[in-house]
Hints:
5-stranded parallel β-sheet; Rev_trsase/Diguanyl_cyclase; Sig_transdc_resp-reg_receiver; phosphoprotein; Alpha-Beta Plaits
Amino acid sequence: MASNEIDIAVKPRVLIADDSRIVRFTLIKHIEGMFDFREACNGEEAWEMLLADRNIKVLITDLTMPRLDGYGLLQRIRQSSITGLRDMPVVVISGSDEQAERERALAAGANDLITKGMDTAHLVSRLDVLSRLVATRQEFRRGLEALAQDKCDETDSGLPPRERFEIDATILLRNAIQGKRNFVLLNVRIALRHADDADDADKHGIPPMATMDAVGRLLRRTVRQTDHVARTGEAEFMLATGSINFDAALVFARRVCHAIADADLASGGTGMIIACCGVASLSDQGLAQVEISLAQMQDIARRRAGLGIAQGFVGAVGEEEELAAAGAALALPAAEPSDSGAPDVETLLRWIREGRREQVMPHLGKLPAELRSLAELVMKRSHP
């Protein structure tokens, strides 16, 4: 098997957009050897290069540039009709550490914000996270299908045993807490849903062993060497990663799950594969002020993944999504009969879970006020 057909590129391509030649030169000196790169001196030039070069995986952009500034460039990217471009990881480079600027950039669609004085190790680490973890859904799906069809040289996923994973992940968690860095745990749960049992979570079956092996092998090839992944159940994997932007982990989790669900994994026509990822992070509001163990974080991630699987949801379930689901179950009134063809509350909640933003937006007024802003946040994070 030719591994270069399925592995993510060794040197992902980064586009650097900044009107300062000195800044561009400094960034290139930081990343050359680890990343391929392209340069643009303003937002318009960067936009044209993004349209012309589909091999660009990450954009680093200044906010203040002539012709088109960073905010305008972000707006074009996030509103693009081209899926690969719309979902591209964007890192904003700034000359200050002001929280207001960070919040505005993140609200505009940036995945991360770095300062111009950042050292090489931190910059390369963040770009590594975005370029490797935020792999395109199509790349992951194609790689998964290739691994599932290959029967020549690997008979299992090659992942470490669960005990080894828990030791390594515990060390990673402890170091993250001591260093005041983030730590994210992903629980990838996979199920085989039969068409006639789609609404009964207890009847979800276990996918074929070849499918589970293929998923494990691709996860092993995709994550960074500093991350840890293992198969921790008959139909689940755990992935532990530190020093990572939470939104990047969430995007990766969603794309992994959609790739698994989209891939042709030869389930024998007995049903469809569904996948959901429970995400637990030290950045969760409920975990920020307490001492937490790996076992407790595993329980949280498993609970969230189980919530998604029970509802047949393909994607990622984090803190906000879990709260939204709890609010839907406990705080909402019974669905009222629809009028003039408008969807009822129950239907709107189902559409939110499915990421059907365009259908939900015209009817957000039907949700209770206390859930409206949360629903908007969930939909913003639900683009596959």
